[in-house]
Amino acid sequence: MRAGDTLTAWVVVDNASGHALQFLGCGPPFDLLLGDSNYQQQAVQPLCAEQITIPTGNSSYRTSIMASYSTCSPESDQDTPACGPDGNPPPLPAGHYTVSSVAVSPKLPVPPSVALTVMG
């Protein structure tokens, strides 16, 4: 994956519980975040409450992986990089990252992490 790009990804859920999982959330049920020993993206959840249902069996959920910082500020500081000229967070540095999943509800299983390389 190239630094600054966004990659479409799918989280596949195999709900073998025998019943649908229902919970309140907003947007996709999973966020995929990049991190390494120096930086971990943070999940940003919109403020709304919709009924979300994960049916029994297999279901797929579209999400994305962004090879850029989650946040930025007009002036760089120790914890937050400076925004780019377009006002958006800058690309992540090239390197080896871990893609981790965050579920919007504790009722959902969390998929295992996978490795991803960001190229400059």
Description:
With 120 residues, this protein is mostly beta strands. The protein has a single domain, classed as Immunoglobulin-like, CATH 2.60.40. The chain contains no helices and 7 strands. A 3-stranded antiparallel beta sheet has the order 3-6-7, with no helix packed on it. A two-stranded antiparallel sheet has the order 1-5. The radius of gyration is 16 Å and the shape is elongated.
Topology:
Elements: E1 6-15, E2 21-25, E3 30-35, E4 50-54, E5 57-66, E6 95-103, E7 114-118
Q: What fold name stands as the CATH topology?
A: Immunoglobulin-like
Number of domains: 1
Please tell me what the overall shape is.
elongated
N-to-C order of helices and strands: EEEEEEE
Rounded mean pLDDT score: 91
Number of strands: 7
Rg over CA atoms: 16 Å
CATH architecture: Sandwich
Query: What proportion of the residues form beta strands (DSSP E)?
Result: 35-45%
Helix proportion? under 10%
Question: Which regions are unreliable across 5 or more consecutive residues at pLDDT < 50?
Answer: none
Biggest β-sheet description: 3 strands, antiparallel
Q: Give me the secondary-structure category.
A: mainly beta
Strand order of the largest sheet: 3-6-7
Number of helices: 0
> What is the end-to-end distance?
9 Å
Highest CATH level, the class: Mainly Beta
Region (Disordered): 70-96
